[in-house]
Amino acid sequence: MEWLIAPFEVAFVQRALWGGLLVSCVCALAGTWVVVRGMAFLGDAMAHGMLPGVAVAALLGGNLIVGAAISCTAMAFGVSVLSRSKRFAADTAIGLLFVGMLAAGVIIVSRSQSFAVDLTGFLFGDVLAVRTVDLWYLVAAVGLALVVAVLGHRAFVALTFDPRKAHTLGLHPKAAHIALVGLVTLAIVASFHVVGTLLVFGLLIAPPAAAVYWSDRIPVVMVLAALIGGFSTAAGLVVSWHAGTAAGATIAAVAVGSFFVSAVVSALRERFGKVGVAALAAVSVAGCAATEPVIVEEPPHGYVAGAEEMSEAQTRLVVSDPATGDIRVIDLLTEQVTTLAGRENAPASSALVGDGRFGFLSAGGSVRVIDSGGWTVDHADHRHYYSAPVREVGGIAAAGGVVAAYGDPAVSAVVLDSGATLAFDRVALGDGQVREPHRIDGIALPYGEKLVVADGAGRVDVRGRDGAAGEPLAGSCPQPRGQAVTRRGVVFGCADGAMVVAQRDGAFVAEKVAYPAPGADRATAFTHRPGSTTLTALAGRTGVWTLDVRKKTWKHIPIADAVAVNTAGEGSAVLVLTRDGVLHGLDLETGAETARVALTGPVEGERVIQVDPNRAYINDLNGRAVLEVAYNDNLRIARTFPTDIAPGLMVETGL
Predict the structure, then answer these.
(1) Which SS3 state, helix, strand or coil, does residue 152 take?
(2) 210: helix, coil or strand?
(3) Share of the chain above pLDDT 70, in %
(4) Residue 248: pLDDT over 80
(5) Is there a contact between 226 and 207 (Cβ–Cβ < 8 Å)?
(6) Rounded Cα distance, 539 and 498, in Å
(7) What are the residue ranges of helices labelled H in 111-217?
């Protein structure tokens, strides 16, 4: 039974199960009436009518469920008004509003280039991303649906079978119809986050339709529909876990499959009788019976002690006030801010870097280690996302300030401005211990379960995790300064270009990428989106560099007074912040400006541009805030995170 239990040992799958069970209850209460009254087309139209509200809510940074509810309510109101016309049938009004609302939603979406991921979740659902707060919304929806179903039961029954009789009995059929449409609206809005608008009928229609084969009493049908929906949720999650399929779609497919199974069994029952069906079922069960194997308890795949596995990257910003050493960790999903106070009489902080999970803050002659509590483990063909409490792990004396940090499952390599590297035991850091790191003379980057090192003499070699002398590589990197780790190898900035070290057929090879022409200032610090093979760097005060690691080419883009630069890579703009406080979007190929936005006044202090697959983040010292920029949507400012400190130092983690 391990295969059946293993998926539900993970926290986000447990939340998905509870979310699916609650949605199944709501859909059973509303879907039974949809099936009995033949309202499937209305439900389909209302589901698609949510798109404009969801699109506007996403653009404004609001709650998607609230946007969906407003749009769906407007759709229901429009259907109720137009259906009163005697010039055409009710389904004509439904069809017109269906197309109109869907067209409006698509137009809104088409105006934003940053909608791809959000729209996919809206259409197909993201049950594995259900949060605890979403469960409370669903509990409230179940309670409200139950109240409406109980209070309106007599009126709904009369409306279904004889509206004129309902009017005669004083049951107000028009009000009952509005309440019934509201109940369907509630079910659709509650369900779309789980299975999406395109698949919502898997839970709204299939379980009640299957239940109708087993009973002709409305309350019994509702209970059976809830049970079938709950079974579909649990079975769909198990199948999705082991088969690697989309969870929402799998749940909907199991629900639809339950309908066809009920139809087949009902047909067999009519032909062979109940005894014959029971005999066939007994034979099937006996044929499948087998001795239970001995179960060996093993930790589930991806299990990490003390951490909770999540369904999406737990992106967070670690920011620090250089003057006080105070630290704030901003959760970019929940917007929750965790405070870590500065140490008493602590010296001013000079730099902050991160390795994807841990932040390393240099202050005076020491390095403080901050666990941001969010990180990703990349297994090439799939990823695991983790969440843990935010905490300060500890500190250690270090001669020199930090300039960069890179990590793999075993090592966190922190590069100092002195040209040396501190190799921390990353497992121990995860356990809350700062053990004495290995000191390596040179820039050491973890790659391919080794450390690739470029020393002050220009030699590049491959060493073990402890930094012991290893295999030298051909070529040299004079005056190494600046480094990066990408999917296609590690990069060292050299006086005459860049050195790219990659692993091919089990062997490490080095390749020099020379500058295209002399004259421009060399790159001394690289920035890029984690995992991207396109790097950026400042080229003095006259422009910026881009380095395509895949094509092995440099490109110089002239722009005056640049203070920060970054890019998400191929297909995205190069983001450049100039000293006047203007953010520029430059075409990666041509260097032409594609967009600009004035963020703040003249820049004071250090500015940072952090980039992830969806957004860019820029610190505003004077405004004491961090700005979130949708770089694929004309540099739109999506959110602003106010802070109670001057966020002079910043790094993003969780990727």
Answers:
(1) coil
(2) helix
(3) 81
(4) no
(5) yes
(6) 14
(7) 116-124, 132-151, 153-161, 163-168, 173-195, 201-204, 206-212
